Amino acid sequence: xxxxxxxxxxxxxxxxxxxxxxxxxxxxxxxxxxxxxxxxxxxxxxxxxxxxxxxxxxxxxxxxxxxxxxxxxxxxxxxxxxxxxxxxxxxxxxxxxxxxxxxxxxxxxxxxxxxxxxxxxxxxxxxxxxxxxxxxxxxxxxxxxxxxxxxxxxxxxxxxxxxxxxxxxxxxxxxxxxxxx
Length: 181
Known about the structure:
Blueprint: E1 11-12, E2 27-29, H1 41-44, E3 72-76, H2 85-94, E4 99-102, H3 111-119, H4 124-136, E5 140-144, H5 153-157, E6 161-165, E7 172-176
Parallel strand pairs: 1-2, 2-3, 3-4, 4-5, 5-6
Antiparallel strand pairs: 6-7
């Protein structure tokens, strides 16, 4: 497998066709991106403009293609206050989803917006806790963060990759979570 670290993450609003596999490395599937464009879509999606996790409750959902299912990570809003975490994880597992990434993420906010989110307990740490809970339930996990240096080695060891913005509003770059992966 080629070294995928440092390149922009491939982000799809649908499950890619098995006949056209995406490049090596993690592949992000973000159904809530429908109608949004790259690179601004992931940045806009964190705003309260839609229900980013509505697709989880959609009964008509195709399973991931076996050819590269192990590389698919589905973007979820990890701080969904409208859905119980265990129910979300059960629905995702029933759909054949095995990889999760916290996208959209509150880590995109800074300044007073970030302070307001922290006051409501909407933090990147809470997103990480959800992903680690998913990991305990058998999911793979990638973590989107503007502050990869804030992660402990133990937290990094639980993650398959990091997703780090190149700059505000710019592409999301893939990074190795630890030297072991």
